[in-house]
UniProtKB/TrEMBL annotation:
Name used for this protein in its record: LysR family transcriptional regulator
Family in the record: Belongs to the LysR transcriptional regulatory family.
Domain HTH lysR-type: 1-58
UniProt record, GO biological process: regulation of DNA-templated transcription initiation
Superkingdom assignment: Bacteria
InterPro entries assigned to the protein according to its UniProt record, in alphabetical order: LysR_HTH_N, LysR_subst-bd, WH-like_DNA-bd_sf, WH_DNA-bd_sf
GO molecular function: DNA binding; DNA-binding transcription factor activity
Species annotation: Noviherbaspirillum saxi
UniProt keyword annotation of Aminoacyl-tRNA synthetase present: no
Pfam families: HTH_1, LysR_substrate
Gene3D superfamilies assigned: 3.40.190.290, Winged helix-like DNA-binding domain superfamily/Winged helix DNA-binding domain
Amino acid sequence: MELRQLRYLASIVESGSISRAAQRLYVAQSALSQQLSKLEAELNTKLLHRTATGIRLTEDGRKFCEHANQILRNVEDAKRAFSDNPNTPVGTVTLGIPQSVSAALALPLFVAAKQRLPRVTLLITEELTGNLENQLIDERLDMSVLFDDGKLNRFDYKALAREQLFLVSTPDFLGISISAAISPSDALRQPLILPSYPHGVRIQVERMARSLSQFESNLVAEINSVAILRSALLAKLGATILPMAPVRDLLDTGLLVAQEIASPAATRTLCLCTPSGAAPSQAGAAVSKLVAEVVGTLCEDGRWLGAAALNVP
């Protein structure tokens, strides 16, 4: 197996066809096809399905491409590590961010990383929290922002911030005053749209219900997408329990309102987690520090509504 075969495969997948990849690489199409065939023969599996409109990865092809892309990133990281100042963080860092956090954190973190860590390639994955946990366990992520559900001891972690949870709906949906905080029992009686277990705020909502000996909230729908949840709220299909960050734009325009829930349990703690016992790379350590600093700044200057920093470097 040769590195050029991995690069050829990556280019074919990115281009969507062998002919376009050949043009992009300035390689004869026949030579590209030959190297792909050699790679498939060595692996004893089919990597691509060829169609009239291009190519499509097989299941084995998808799995192999994950390994190939990681190998290519590692090669580039190794090259840069020996061509730069040894004190300059260099490399690729993969970071997971939950859907309900990305609106507040992702862009400011990207901007800060570009300015302060120019030789670090930051790859951010936005996902449901349950999926991020699995990817971190499998070490497909270098680190991830997760919520403290009492089970984070399987990772190494540090607390970043505490977020307040609110009852969120259109202004006229619930027909109750939002001038004062709502009790947790009243919040749980509302027709709620929540993510399925164990994603997002679902664990925290169930914990709040158990604290009241009220084991079931008034659940009318389960939606595992922030975008679809926002649409469902605007369509007045229900209310939800969320922090303010993922709906801030709709709160600012008055399309949605957020009512504070009067309970210490109506909060969640955000933590930065890494695989247990894993030694961080220089780039990983730099990104970890930067995440904590950016979270602290966003909380302190009021850009992350309803959040308070816990671990400011």
